Amino acid sequence: MRFAPVPALESAAELKKSPPRSANYRGHGHEGNSFMSLDRVEPGFCECGCGAYIGFWDRNIPSRGIKRGDPRRFVHNHHGRRDPAQQFWSKIDKENESGCWIWTGARSHGYGDFSVGRRVIRAHRFSYEMLVGPIPEGLEIDHLCKRRECVNPDHLEPVTSRENNLRRDYAGTETHCPHGHLLAGYNLMFNKRTGARICRTCHVEANRRYRARKRAGL
Prior knowledge:
The protein has 218 residues and is α+β, with helices and mostly antiparallel strands. The chain has helices spanning 12-17, 84-89, 123-131, 161-166, 200-215, and strands at 25-30, 33-38, 92-93, 102-103, 107-108, 111-116, 119-122, 140-143, 156-159, 188-190, 197-199. Strand 6 and strand 7 (119-122) form a beta hairpin. The longest helix is centred in the last third of the chain and has 16 residues, at 200-215. It starts with 11 loop residues before the first helix and ends with a helix.
């Protein structure tokens, strides 16, 4: 396969003689733990960090969103070699006033999704475990900043499922359910496991519709 010409700043021969251009790491402190940040691999070099020069695309591939002149990313079969930490840092945007680290990669239900090998995990959980430590068994991560796409460990706290539900912006503050029923007195129920508030009228109606569907064989 042909490659597009190398940028004029350096000749192909000079690039081949130069040392590997893999990510450069520098240490930072976070709550007493040391972790690594990195600079991106220079365009035209394999992103796994092996230092191999692979050039730039010489044609457009619309189905893959590739344009002529875009840097190639990986030597064949090197995609799986990439350090998870390097992948993680390349998908974070820290440039905002709130202090949030916004996940720019894939998301589902507002939460960042992060691929580690063949597994897909939540980006904020990976961030906490990498930069702080293991998440205690039985706990889940609460976003103190109330932004699901944030992966800043300073904005994350392990809590029980019950506590997480009670901390929601609307928990304990709404006077009526989404259907207009008063959340008070006999009409107010609580989920025994999570502590979430439940409208009794809506709960009874939901059970009635479920039984009707069962009788109809749906």
